[in-house]
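Appendix B, Record 12. Input sequence as logged:
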Amino acid sequence: MTLLAPHLQAFFTDRLIRQKQASPHTVTAYRDTWRLLLAYAGQRAGKPPSRLDIADLDATLVTGFLDHLEHARGCTARTRNARLAAIRSLFGYLATRCPEHAGDIARVLSVPAKRCDSTIVGYLAEPEVAALLAAPDPATWTGRRDRALLHTAVTTGLRASELTGLTRGDVHLGPGGYLACHGKGRKDRITPVSGNAAAALQAWLAERSGQPADAVFCTRRGTAMSTDAIADRVAVHTTKAAAACPSLTSKNVSPHVLRHTAAMRLLHAGVDVTVIALWLGHESATTTLVYLRADLELKQRALDRTTPPGEKPGRYQPPDDLLAFLDGL
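Logged structural output:
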């Protein structure tokens, strides 16, 4: 039998970090997948993860783990597929190093990914954005930090991981203010900031003293906030903002929804999708087309342009509340 541990360690240190120079985000994602899988496999095999053999992680166990992610942990099919990609990467590495396990490895590599539904992205309307930005309490240290955080997220569309990695040296608030960002896929980009976001950042950085390498959005100990901490703060302020804007109660607002909101604001302003793709750091403009599918205003303008002569532009409106009731049956 061949122990998994030394090969797993070599995969991370030699293959991912040294040979492929994978980004820290990729290493973290793969690490989290294998922590979950090893805990699951150790429980099933009745042995500590460090004593697991490659044969212990056969296709049956991997499939069971993927089902566990969906049904016990509530993960989506996309998350399941991302975990499967991390598992396949290691087994592809093992294929040339452990030929005695070729059969088990081939069966794991043949586990299929699931097809995913293409959903409409969620974003906030302008009244909801205003309510959310007004939610943090400016009389508290946390409120002032969160106010700058929310303004930055809604204006720039930075990912949560990019917000946590933002340093004081990345913020340039002179004429033509912008943020420098090293984002997903090793892509560096600069993102302009609006006047309100710049004012919130300037006020916060004046209070948040430190060196250029220090995190902009930090805890009280001075360390960078985690992505979970940012998500928690967004949820707290969304709950508070819902009192002033009840439509927020029906929305699951996350840092990524704020990123979608930044993209939709640009789209409503008439910015071309290729520019939005560069703004958000997308690998391809094709990724940005999801915002076109979600933009009902853009579709309404297209509908108005195709209205036949002699007809009134616009969507159908029931002439009477009673008729609307009957039409809805």
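The longest helix spans residues 24-45.
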